[in-house]
Amino acid sequence: MKPRKFQAIRGTRDLLPPETALWNRVEQTAHEVFRAFGFDEIRVSILQMTDLFARSIGAETDVVAKEMYTFVDPLQGLPDPADFAVSPDRYVEAVEEAMKAGEIQVTDSNLRALVRLKSQLEIFQVRAGTQSAEEAQLKFRVAASQIQFGDSISLGPEATASVCRAYIEHNMQQLPQPVKLYYLGPMFRRERPQKGRYRQFYQIGAEILGGPDAPAIDAELIEMLMTFFHKCGLIGTELTINSIGHAADNCRRGYVRKLREELLKVKDKLGADSQRRIETNPLRVLDSKLEHEQPVILTLPHIADHLCDDCKAHYAAVKRDLDLRGVAYRENWRLVRGLDYYMRTTFEITAKGLGSQNAVCGGGRYDGLVELLGGPPTKGIGFAIGEDRLILSLEESGKAPAAQGRDVFIAWMGQNAYATAIRAAKALRSAGFRVEVPATELKFGKALERASKLGSRFALILGDDEVQSGEWTLKNLANAEQQKLTEQALLEYLRR
RNA sequence: GUGGGAGUAGCUCAGCUGGUAGAGCGUCGGUCUGUGGCACCGAAUGUCGCGGGUUCAAUCCCCGUCUCCCACCCCA
Questions:
Q1: Which of A110, A249, A387, A482 is least surrounded, with the fewest CB atoms within 10 Å of its CB?
Q2: pTM of whole model > 0.95?
Q3: Among A263, A315, A264, A261, which residue's Cα sits nearest to residue A286?
Protein backbone atom coordinates (compact mmCIF):
# COMPACT_ATOMS: atom_id res chain seq x y z
CA MET A 1 0.00 0.00 0.00
CA LYS A 2 1.22 3.44 -0.90
CA PRO A 3 1.87 5.59 2.12
CA ARG A 4 -0.16 8.70 2.57
CA LYS A 5 1.04 11.76 0.77
CA PHE A 6 1.81 14.53 3.18
CA GLN A 7 1.50 18.13 2.19
CA ALA A 8 2.34 21.44 3.77
CA ILE A 9 -0.13 22.71 6.37
CA ARG A 10 -2.67 25.10 4.94
CA GLY A 11 -1.32 28.61 4.66
CA THR A 12 2.27 27.48 5.09
CA ARG A 13 4.78 26.84 2.37
CA ASP A 14 8.29 25.69 1.65
CA LEU A 15 10.74 28.22 0.36
CA LEU A 16 12.85 26.57 -2.30
CA PRO A 17 15.96 27.45 -4.23
CA PRO A 18 16.59 29.57 -6.13
CA GLU A 19 14.08 31.79 -4.29
CA THR A 20 15.87 31.23 -1.00
CA ALA A 21 18.83 33.13 -2.43
CA LEU A 22 16.62 36.20 -2.69
CA TRP A 23 15.46 35.74 0.90
CA ASN A 24 19.06 35.60 1.99
CA ARG A 25 19.90 38.72 0.05
CA VAL A 26 17.04 40.63 1.63
CA GLU A 27 17.96 39.47 5.11
CA GLN A 28 21.61 40.27 4.51
CA THR A 29 20.59 43.75 3.42
CA ALA A 30 18.57 44.15 6.60
CA HIS A 31 21.54 43.16 8.74
CA GLU A 32 23.78 45.64 6.94
CA VAL A 33 21.43 48.62 6.86
CA PHE A 34 20.17 48.21 10.42
CA ARG A 35 23.70 47.76 11.72
CA ALA A 36 24.68 50.94 9.93
CA PHE A 37 21.98 52.76 11.91
CA GLY A 38 23.25 51.34 15.17
CA PHE A 39 20.68 48.63 15.72
CA ASP A 40 21.56 45.25 17.21
CA GLU A 41 19.82 41.99 16.48
CA ILE A 42 17.54 40.36 19.02
CA ARG A 43 16.14 36.85 18.67
CA VAL A 44 13.06 36.30 20.77
CA SER A 45 11.41 32.93 21.13
CA ILE A 46 8.41 32.20 18.98
CA LEU A 47 6.46 30.79 21.92
CA GLN A 48 5.23 33.29 24.47
CA MET A 49 2.60 33.42 27.15
CA THR A 50 -0.79 33.99 25.54
CA ASP A 51 -1.43 36.80 27.97
CA LEU A 52 1.49 38.82 26.66
CA PHE A 53 -0.25 39.24 23.32
CA ALA A 54 -3.71 39.62 24.81
CA ARG A 55 -2.51 42.55 26.88
CA SER A 56 -0.34 44.29 24.33
CA ILE A 57 -2.18 43.81 21.07
CA GLY A 58 -5.59 43.97 22.71
CA ALA A 59 -7.81 41.08 23.75
CA GLU A 60 -10.60 42.32 21.48
CA THR A 61 -8.54 42.56 18.30
CA ASP A 62 -9.03 39.94 15.61
CA VAL A 63 -5.40 38.96 15.88
CA VAL A 64 -5.77 37.90 19.48
CA ALA A 65 -9.42 36.92 19.56
CA LYS A 66 -9.38 34.48 16.67
CA GLU A 67 -6.11 34.30 14.81
CA MET A 68 -3.56 33.05 17.31
CA TYR A 69 -2.25 29.52 17.52
CA THR A 70 -2.79 28.91 21.20
CA PHE A 71 -2.46 25.77 23.27
CA VAL A 72 -1.86 24.56 26.77
CA ASP A 73 1.65 23.67 27.76
CA PRO A 74 1.09 20.57 29.93
CA LEU A 75 2.42 20.79 33.47
CA GLN A 76 4.90 18.08 34.39
CA GLY A 77 5.36 16.42 37.75
CA LEU A 78 1.77 15.87 38.86
CA PRO A 79 0.84 12.34 39.84
CA ASP A 80 -1.12 10.40 37.24
CA PRO A 81 -4.84 10.74 38.07
CA ALA A 82 -5.30 7.19 36.85
CA ASP A 83 -2.81 5.87 39.34
CA PHE A 84 -4.89 4.99 42.37
CA ALA A 85 -1.95 3.39 44.11
CA VAL A 86 -1.15 6.97 44.94
CA SER A 87 -4.23 7.92 46.88
CA PRO A 88 -6.57 10.25 44.97
CA ASP A 89 -6.74 12.77 47.76
CA ARG A 90 -3.00 13.31 47.29
CA TYR A 91 -3.78 14.09 43.69
CA VAL A 92 -6.35 16.71 44.62
CA GLU A 93 -3.88 18.24 47.02
CA ALA A 94 -1.26 18.39 44.32
CA VAL A 95 -3.65 20.19 41.98
CA GLU A 96 -4.56 22.71 44.66
CA GLU A 97 -0.92 23.35 45.45
CA ALA A 98 -0.09 23.82 41.80
CA MET A 99 -2.91 26.32 41.50
CA LYS A 100 -1.71 28.21 44.51
CA ALA A 101 1.79 28.26 43.05
CA GLY A 102 0.44 29.56 39.77
CA GLU A 103 1.55 26.48 37.86
CA ILE A 104 -2.05 25.75 36.95
CA GLN A 105 -4.03 28.74 35.83
CA VAL A 106 -6.76 29.85 38.18
CA THR A 107 -9.54 30.20 35.65
CA ASP A 108 -13.27 29.82 36.15
CA SER A 109 -13.33 26.59 34.23
CA ASN A 110 -10.43 25.21 36.26
CA LEU A 111 -12.12 26.14 39.51
CA ARG A 112 -15.33 24.43 38.42
CA ALA A 113 -13.38 21.36 37.40
CA LEU A 114 -11.69 21.32 40.80
CA VAL A 115 -15.06 21.38 42.56
CA ARG A 116 -16.20 18.44 40.43
CA LEU A 117 -12.98 16.64 41.17
CA LYS A 118 -13.48 17.02 44.92
CA SER A 119 -17.03 15.78 44.85
CA GLN A 120 -15.99 12.76 42.80
CA LEU A 121 -13.28 12.14 45.36
CA GLU A 122 -15.88 12.06 48.13
CA ILE A 123 -18.06 9.67 46.20
CA PHE A 124 -15.09 7.44 45.58
CA GLN A 125 -14.14 7.43 49.25
CA VAL A 126 -17.66 6.50 50.30
CA ARG A 127 -17.81 3.70 47.79
CA ALA A 128 -14.28 2.43 48.30
CA GLY A 129 -14.18 -1.32 48.15
CA THR A 130 -17.67 -1.62 46.68
CA GLN A 131 -18.53 -2.55 43.12
CA SER A 132 -19.33 1.00 42.04
CA ALA A 133 -15.91 2.19 43.12
CA GLU A 134 -14.67 1.58 39.61
CA GLU A 135 -17.27 3.89 38.14
CA ALA A 136 -16.34 6.56 40.66
CA GLN A 137 -12.71 6.17 39.63
CA LEU A 138 -13.63 6.73 36.06
CA LYS A 139 -15.60 9.87 36.84
CA PHE A 140 -12.74 11.12 38.95
CA ARG A 141 -10.42 10.74 35.97
CA VAL A 142 -12.85 12.55 33.68
CA ALA A 143 -13.05 15.43 36.14
CA ALA A 144 -9.26 15.51 36.30
CA SER A 145 -8.98 15.69 32.52
CA GLN A 146 -11.10 18.82 32.46
CA ILE A 147 -8.52 20.86 34.27
CA GLN A 148 -6.20 22.78 32.02
CA PHE A 149 -2.86 21.67 33.32
CA GLY A 150 -0.37 24.34 32.59
CA ASP A 151 0.12 27.64 30.90
CA SER A 152 -1.66 28.91 27.86
CA ILE A 153 1.05 29.69 25.33
CA SER A 154 0.88 31.01 21.79
CA LEU A 155 2.95 31.23 18.67
CA GLY A 156 3.84 34.86 18.20
CA PRO A 157 1.55 36.74 15.78
CA GLU A 158 4.04 39.62 15.79
CA ALA A 159 7.19 40.46 17.69
CA THR A 160 6.81 43.89 19.27
CA ALA A 161 5.29 42.52 22.46
CA SER A 162 7.99 39.89 22.76
CA VAL A 163 10.73 42.45 22.28
CA CYS A 164 9.21 44.66 24.96
CA ARG A 165 8.95 41.70 27.30
CA ALA A 166 12.62 40.93 26.69
CA TYR A 167 13.51 44.58 27.30
CA ILE A 168 11.81 44.39 30.68
CA GLU A 169 12.97 40.89 31.61
CA HIS A 170 16.61 41.64 30.87
CA ASN A 171 16.56 45.08 32.47
CA MET A 172 17.57 46.81 29.31
CA GLN A 173 16.63 50.14 30.82
CA GLN A 174 20.08 49.81 32.42
CA LEU A 175 21.70 50.05 29.01
CA PRO A 176 22.45 53.36 27.31
CA GLN A 177 19.09 54.64 26.06
CA PRO A 178 17.48 54.38 23.66
CA VAL A 179 17.93 50.67 22.97
CA LYS A 180 17.73 49.96 19.25
CA LEU A 181 16.87 46.41 18.29
CA TYR A 182 15.91 44.57 15.15
CA TYR A 183 14.67 41.07 14.51
CA LEU A 184 13.61 38.81 11.71
CA GLY A 185 11.76 35.55 11.71
CA PRO A 186 8.50 33.65 11.36
CA MET A 187 5.18 34.78 12.84
CA PHE A 188 1.89 32.93 12.93
CA ARG A 189 -1.68 34.00 12.36
CA ARG A 190 -4.54 31.68 11.55
CA GLU A 191 -6.19 33.66 8.76
CA ARG A 192 -7.59 32.65 5.42
CA PRO A 193 -4.55 32.46 3.12
CA GLN A 194 -4.37 34.89 0.23
CA LYS A 195 -1.85 36.52 -2.01
CA GLY A 196 0.89 37.87 0.23
CA ARG A 197 -0.75 36.48 3.33
CA TYR A 198 0.23 33.23 4.96
CA ARG A 199 -0.37 31.54 8.27
CA GLN A 200 3.33 31.26 8.76
CA PHE A 201 4.80 34.49 7.51
CA TYR A 202 8.02 36.33 8.03
CA GLN A 203 8.63 39.75 9.44
CA ILE A 204 11.65 41.97 9.60
CA GLY A 205 11.21 44.60 12.23
CA ALA A 206 12.95 47.09 14.45
CA GLU A 207 12.11 48.80 17.72
CA ILE A 208 13.54 51.80 19.52
CA LEU A 209 12.87 51.57 23.24
CA GLY A 210 13.57 54.19 25.86
CA GLY A 211 15.30 57.45 25.29
CA PRO A 212 13.87 60.94 25.04
CA ASP A 213 10.62 62.18 23.59
CA ALA A 214 12.38 63.33 20.43
CA PRO A 215 10.80 63.43 16.98
CA ALA A 216 14.26 62.67 15.58
CA ILE A 217 13.82 59.10 16.81
CA ASP A 218 10.68 58.65 14.71
CA ALA A 219 12.36 60.23 11.73
CA GLU A 220 15.52 58.16 11.97
CA LEU A 221 13.55 54.94 12.17
CA ILE A 222 11.60 55.86 9.06
CA GLU A 223 14.72 56.97 7.24
CA MET A 224 16.32 53.62 7.99
CA LEU A 225 13.27 51.82 6.70
CA MET A 226 13.27 53.68 3.42
CA THR A 227 17.02 53.16 3.07
CA PHE A 228 16.47 49.45 3.51
CA PHE A 229 13.78 49.28 0.83
CA HIS A 230 15.94 51.29 -1.51
CA LYS A 231 18.92 48.95 -0.96
CA CYS A 232 16.69 45.97 -1.62
CA GLY A 233 15.81 47.45 -4.97
CA LEU A 234 12.13 47.72 -4.18
CA ILE A 235 10.39 50.07 -6.56
CA GLY A 236 7.10 51.91 -6.39
CA THR A 237 7.19 52.30 -2.63
CA GLU A 238 5.03 54.91 -1.03
CA LEU A 239 5.38 56.12 2.53
CA THR A 240 2.24 57.32 4.23
CA ILE A 241 2.25 58.93 7.66
CA ASN A 242 -0.20 60.23 10.17
CA SER A 243 -0.47 61.04 13.83
CA ILE A 244 -3.23 59.53 15.90
CA GLY A 245 -2.44 61.50 19.04
CA HIS A 246 -2.53 60.00 22.49
CA ALA A 247 -5.28 58.58 24.64
CA ALA A 248 -6.53 61.69 26.46
CA ASP A 249 -9.76 63.65 26.47
CA ASN A 250 -8.13 66.70 24.91
CA CYS A 251 -6.60 64.53 22.21
CA ARG A 252 -7.57 61.22 20.58
CA ARG A 253 -10.30 60.31 23.05
CA GLY A 254 -12.04 63.57 22.39
CA TYR A 255 -11.69 63.07 18.67
CA VAL A 256 -13.06 59.55 18.78
CA ARG A 257 -16.09 60.80 20.70
CA LYS A 258 -16.70 63.49 18.09
CA LEU A 259 -16.11 61.03 15.28
CA ARG A 260 -18.62 58.62 16.73
CA GLU A 261 -21.21 61.37 16.97
CA GLU A 262 -20.70 62.31 13.35
CA LEU A 263 -20.79 58.69 12.25
CA LEU A 264 -24.08 58.10 14.00
CA LYS A 265 -25.58 60.93 11.94
CA VAL A 266 -24.68 59.19 8.69
CA LYS A 267 -25.04 55.64 9.92
CA ASP A 268 -27.60 54.65 7.29
CA LYS A 269 -25.17 55.52 4.50
CA LEU A 270 -22.58 53.05 5.76
CA GLY A 271 -22.20 49.32 5.21
CA ALA A 272 -22.75 46.73 7.89
CA ASP A 273 -19.07 46.43 8.77
CA SER A 274 -18.65 50.14 9.25
CA GLN A 275 -21.87 50.40 11.25
CA ARG A 276 -20.55 47.77 13.61
CA ARG A 277 -17.25 49.64 13.94
CA ILE A 278 -18.97 52.83 15.04
CA GLU A 279 -19.27 51.14 18.42
CA THR A 280 -16.24 48.83 18.43
CA ASN A 281 -13.57 50.97 16.77
CA PRO A 282 -14.75 54.12 15.00
CA LEU A 283 -11.24 54.96 13.78
CA ARG A 284 -11.29 51.92 11.57
CA VAL A 285 -14.24 53.25 9.62
CA LEU A 286 -11.80 55.75 8.11
CA ASP A 287 -9.87 52.81 6.69
CA SER A 288 -12.83 51.47 4.72
CA LYS A 289 -12.19 50.84 1.06
CA LEU A 290 -15.84 50.50 0.07
CA GLU A 291 -16.56 52.73 -2.90
CA HIS A 292 -19.95 54.00 -1.76
CA GLU A 293 -18.66 54.98 1.70
CA GLN A 294 -15.92 57.24 0.38
CA PRO A 295 -17.99 60.44 -0.03
CA VAL A 296 -19.33 60.04 3.50
CA ILE A 297 -15.92 59.47 5.00
CA LEU A 298 -14.53 62.58 3.36
CA THR A 299 -16.99 64.70 5.33
CA LEU A 300 -15.83 63.35 8.69
CA PRO A 301 -13.70 65.43 11.06
CA HIS A 302 -9.92 65.09 10.77
CA ILE A 303 -7.90 63.97 13.74
CA ALA A 304 -5.24 66.57 12.99
CA ASP A 305 -7.69 69.26 14.06
CA HIS A 306 -8.22 67.59 17.43
CA LEU A 307 -4.71 66.77 18.54
CA CYS A 308 -3.45 68.27 21.77
CA ASP A 309 -0.68 70.86 21.49
CA ASP A 310 2.07 68.41 22.40
CA CYS A 311 1.00 65.81 19.84
CA LYS A 312 0.50 68.48 17.21
CA ALA A 313 3.99 69.84 17.80
CA HIS A 314 5.48 66.36 17.79
CA TYR A 315 3.86 65.51 14.46
CA ALA A 316 5.03 68.75 12.88
CA ALA A 317 8.56 68.14 14.13
CA VAL A 318 8.61 64.62 12.75
CA LYS A 319 7.62 65.94 9.32
CA ARG A 320 10.30 68.65 9.47
CA ASP A 321 12.90 66.05 10.38
CA LEU A 322 11.83 63.77 7.53
CA ASP A 323 12.20 66.70 5.12
CA LEU A 324 15.66 67.30 6.51
CA ARG A 325 16.59 63.69 5.79
CA GLY A 326 15.17 63.83 2.30
CA VAL A 327 12.52 61.24 3.02
CA ALA A 328 9.48 61.70 0.81
CA TYR A 329 6.13 61.01 2.43
CA ARG A 330 2.48 61.48 1.88
CA GLU A 331 0.10 62.39 4.67
CA ASN A 332 -3.12 60.48 5.09
CA TRP A 333 -5.41 61.49 7.90
CA ARG A 334 -7.27 58.22 7.41
CA LEU A 335 -4.26 56.06 8.25
CA VAL A 336 -5.07 54.40 11.55
CA ARG A 337 -3.60 51.24 12.92
CA GLY A 338 -5.45 48.16 14.02
CA LEU A 339 -3.38 47.31 17.05
CA ASP A 340 -4.37 48.90 20.35
CA TYR A 341 -0.95 50.04 21.46
CA TYR A 342 -0.25 52.61 18.77
CA MET A 343 -0.21 56.36 19.41
CA ARG A 344 1.09 59.53 17.79
CA THR A 345 3.18 58.68 14.73
CA THR A 346 1.82 55.93 12.53
CA PHE A 347 3.11 54.99 9.11
CA GLU A 348 2.70 52.47 6.39
CA ILE A 349 4.54 51.61 3.22
CA THR A 350 2.87 50.18 0.17
CA ALA A 351 4.52 48.55 -2.80
CA LYS A 352 3.54 47.26 -6.21
CA GLY A 353 2.48 43.82 -7.31
CA LEU A 354 0.85 42.73 -4.09
CA GLY A 355 -2.82 42.57 -4.98
CA SER A 356 -5.10 43.86 -2.28
CA GLN A 357 -2.54 43.20 0.44
CA ASN A 358 -0.35 46.05 -0.71
CA ALA A 359 1.05 47.13 2.66
CA VAL A 360 4.59 45.89 2.90
CA CYS A 361 5.34 47.58 6.19
CA GLY A 362 3.45 49.08 9.06
CA GLY A 363 4.57 50.76 12.23
CA GLY A 364 4.10 53.41 14.77
CA ARG A 365 4.78 54.78 18.21
CA TYR A 366 3.67 52.92 21.33
CA ASP A 367 4.87 54.83 24.37
CA GLY A 368 2.68 53.10 26.92
CA LEU A 369 3.36 49.54 25.97
CA VAL A 370 6.38 48.68 28.09
CA GLU A 371 4.65 50.06 31.15
CA LEU A 372 1.49 48.15 30.30
CA LEU A 373 3.58 44.98 30.34
CA GLY A 374 4.92 45.71 33.82
CA GLY A 375 8.05 47.63 32.94
CA PRO A 376 9.12 51.18 33.72
CA PRO A 377 7.54 54.06 31.75
CA THR A 378 9.32 53.81 28.43
CA LYS A 379 8.99 55.38 25.02
CA GLY A 380 8.72 53.02 22.10
CA ILE A 381 8.41 53.03 18.36
CA GLY A 382 8.85 50.34 15.77
CA PHE A 383 7.86 48.83 12.47
CA ALA A 384 7.33 45.41 10.96
CA ILE A 385 8.03 44.57 7.35
CA GLY A 386 6.16 41.71 5.75
CA GLU A 387 9.08 39.83 4.27
CA ASP A 388 6.87 37.56 2.17
CA ARG A 389 5.28 40.61 0.58
CA LEU A 390 8.60 42.34 0.11
CA ILE A 391 9.94 39.29 -1.72
CA LEU A 392 6.76 39.04 -3.74
CA SER A 393 7.03 42.62 -4.84
CA LEU A 394 10.71 42.21 -5.75
CA GLU A 395 9.86 39.17 -7.83
CA GLU A 396 7.03 40.99 -9.57
CA SER A 397 9.46 43.65 -10.67
CA GLY A 398 11.78 41.07 -12.16
CA LYS A 399 14.23 40.73 -9.31
CA ALA A 400 13.95 36.95 -9.17
CA PRO A 401 17.42 35.49 -8.84
CA ALA A 402 18.81 32.94 -11.27
CA ALA A 403 19.74 29.52 -10.02
CA GLN A 404 23.03 29.49 -8.17
CA GLY A 405 25.72 27.98 -10.37
CA ARG A 406 29.13 26.58 -9.48
CA ASP A 407 32.50 28.17 -9.85
CA VAL A 408 34.31 24.97 -10.64
CA PHE A 409 33.10 21.54 -11.66
CA ILE A 410 35.80 18.92 -11.35
CA ALA A 411 35.61 16.39 -14.16
CA TRP A 412 37.76 13.51 -13.00
CA MET A 413 38.42 10.11 -14.49
CA GLY A 414 40.23 7.21 -12.87
CA GLN A 415 41.14 6.48 -9.27
CA ASN A 416 44.37 8.45 -9.41
CA ALA A 417 42.55 11.46 -10.67
CA TYR A 418 39.88 11.02 -8.00
CA ALA A 419 42.45 11.48 -5.26
CA THR A 420 43.70 14.59 -7.01
CA ALA A 421 40.15 15.83 -7.45
CA ILE A 422 39.51 15.58 -3.72
CA ARG A 423 42.66 17.53 -3.01
CA ALA A 424 41.85 20.16 -5.61
CA ALA A 425 38.32 20.55 -4.27
CA LYS A 426 39.60 21.07 -0.75
CA ALA A 427 42.00 23.79 -1.87
CA LEU A 428 39.44 25.54 -4.05
CA ARG A 429 36.73 25.41 -1.42
CA SER A 430 38.92 26.83 1.28
CA ALA A 431 39.72 29.64 -1.13
CA GLY A 432 36.01 30.34 -1.15
CA PHE A 433 34.96 28.84 -4.46
CA ARG A 434 31.81 26.88 -5.03
CA VAL A 435 33.00 23.46 -6.15
CA GLU A 436 31.24 20.36 -7.39
CA VAL A 437 32.90 16.96 -7.46
CA PRO A 438 30.76 14.23 -9.02
CA ALA A 439 30.38 11.27 -6.70
CA THR A 440 30.83 8.68 -9.40
CA GLU A 441 33.16 8.51 -12.34
CA LEU A 442 31.60 10.05 -15.43
CA LYS A 443 32.65 9.98 -19.03
CA PHE A 444 34.14 13.34 -19.91
CA GLY A 445 31.31 14.18 -22.23
CA LYS A 446 28.79 13.47 -19.52
CA ALA A 447 30.81 15.34 -16.93
CA LEU A 448 30.99 18.48 -19.04
CA GLU A 449 27.31 18.24 -19.82
CA ARG A 450 26.52 18.13 -16.16
CA ALA A 451 28.96 20.94 -15.44
CA SER A 452 27.20 23.16 -17.90
CA LYS A 453 23.74 22.19 -16.66
CA LEU A 454 24.77 23.17 -13.15
CA GLY A 455 25.80 26.55 -14.46
CA SER A 456 29.50 26.14 -13.75
CA ARG A 457 31.92 28.79 -14.87
CA PHE A 458 34.86 26.43 -15.18
CA ALA A 459 35.47 22.73 -15.55
CA LEU A 460 38.65 21.44 -14.00
CA ILE A 461 39.62 18.42 -16.05
CA LEU A 462 41.62 15.79 -14.21
CA GLY A 463 42.62 12.55 -15.94
CA ASP A 464 45.74 10.40 -16.07
CA ASP A 465 47.56 13.00 -18.18
CA GLU A 466 47.07 15.77 -15.67
CA VAL A 467 47.97 13.62 -12.68
CA GLN A 468 51.15 12.52 -14.48
CA SER A 469 52.31 15.96 -15.54
CA GLY A 470 50.97 18.00 -12.61
CA GLU A 471 49.55 20.40 -15.18
CA TRP A 472 45.79 20.59 -14.75
CA THR A 473 43.37 21.45 -17.49
CA LEU A 474 40.96 24.31 -16.81
CA LYS A 475 38.18 24.87 -19.27
CA ASN A 476 36.15 28.06 -19.41
CA LEU A 477 32.66 26.82 -20.13
CA ALA A 478 31.43 30.13 -21.46
CA ASN A 479 33.90 30.46 -24.31
CA ALA A 480 35.30 26.89 -24.50
CA GLU A 481 38.86 28.10 -24.04
CA GLN A 482 41.09 25.86 -22.04
CA GLN A 483 44.54 26.01 -20.60
CA LYS A 484 47.03 24.00 -18.58
CA LEU A 485 47.84 25.26 -15.10
CA THR A 486 49.70 23.97 -12.08
CA GLU A 487 47.79 23.73 -8.83
CA GLN A 488 49.31 26.95 -7.56
CA ALA A 489 48.76 28.80 -10.83
CA LEU A 490 45.17 27.61 -10.93
CA LEU A 491 44.32 29.21 -7.61
CA GLU A 492 45.96 32.45 -8.62
CA TYR A 493 44.21 32.45 -11.97
CA LEU A 494 40.77 31.91 -10.42
CA ARG A 495 41.32 34.47 -7.72
CA ARG A 496 41.82 37.38 -10.02
C1' G B 1 -15.50 33.19 9.23
C1' U B 2 -18.13 34.88 4.05
C1' G B 3 -18.20 34.93 -1.44
C1' G B 4 -16.09 33.63 -6.47
C1' G B 5 -12.54 30.64 -9.60
C1' A B 6 -9.39 26.36 -10.15
C1' G B 7 -7.25 21.20 -9.22
C1' U B 8 -4.83 16.12 -15.42
C1' A B 9 3.21 13.70 -15.44
C1' G B 10 8.39 17.24 -11.56
C1' C B 11 6.66 22.20 -14.33
C1' U B 12 3.20 24.70 -18.09
C1' C B 13 -1.00 22.91 -20.10
C1' A B 14 -4.30 20.00 -24.12
C1' G B 15 -8.15 16.36 -23.85
C1' C B 16 -14.24 17.34 -29.36
C1' U B 17 -22.76 16.78 -26.49
C1' G B 18 -19.07 10.96 -21.52
C1' G B 19 -15.58 5.45 -24.62
C1' U B 20 -10.47 4.13 -18.46
C1' A B 21 -4.90 9.93 -21.02
C1' G B 22 -1.42 13.31 -24.44
C1' A B 23 2.17 17.51 -25.87
C1' G B 24 6.12 20.85 -24.73
C1' C B 25 9.79 21.72 -21.09
C1' G B 26 12.54 19.15 -17.38
C1' U B 27 14.87 14.42 -15.53
C1' C B 28 17.57 9.88 -16.85
C1' G B 29 19.96 6.86 -20.71
C1' G B 30 21.94 6.27 -25.81
C1' U B 31 24.20 8.16 -30.62
C1' C B 32 29.35 10.31 -28.07
C1' U B 33 34.51 5.07 -23.59
C1' G B 34 39.51 12.90 -23.04
C1' U B 35 35.64 17.55 -24.16
C1' G B 36 29.43 20.45 -22.64
C1' G B 37 25.54 24.00 -24.60
C1' C B 38 22.90 21.80 -30.67
C1' A B 39 20.54 17.66 -33.00
C1' C B 40 18.40 12.85 -33.23
C1' C B 41 16.66 8.27 -30.67
C1' G B 42 14.75 6.02 -26.33
C1' A B 43 12.97 5.51 -21.11
C1' A B 44 10.67 6.56 -16.45
C1' U B 45 6.88 9.18 -13.74
C1' G B 46 -0.28 9.88 -13.50
C1' U B 47 -5.16 5.56 -8.23
C1' C B 48 -7.00 12.80 -14.03
C1' G B 49 -7.00 16.17 -5.71
C1' C B 50 -10.09 12.70 -2.48
C1' G B 51 -15.02 10.25 -1.44
C1' G B 52 -19.81 9.18 -3.19
C1' G B 53 -23.71 9.28 -7.09
C1' U B 54 -25.75 8.89 -12.35
C1' U B 55 -24.24 5.55 -16.54
C1' C B 56 -22.91 -0.45 -20.05
C1' A B 57 -18.85 3.16 -19.49
C1' A B 58 -16.83 9.31 -15.91
C1' U B 59 -10.80 13.33 -16.49
C1' C B 60 -15.60 15.12 -18.58
C1' C B 61 -22.24 15.22 -15.68
C1' C B 62 -24.25 15.74 -10.22
C1' C B 63 -23.29 16.03 -4.71
C1' G B 64 -19.87 16.31 -0.76
C1' U B 65 -14.93 17.20 0.90
C1' C B 66 -9.78 18.88 0.86
C1' U B 67 -6.17 22.14 -1.10
C1' C B 68 -4.65 26.29 -3.95
C1' C B 69 -5.79 31.11 -6.15
C1' C B 70 -8.70 35.85 -5.92
C1' A B 71 -11.74 39.15 -3.09
C1' C B 72 -14.18 40.57 1.78
C1' C B 73 -12.88 40.88 7.02
C1' C B 74 -8.26 41.97 9.31
C1' C B 75 -3.37 42.87 8.88
C1' A B 76 2.81 42.46 7.52
A1: A249
A2: no
A3: A263
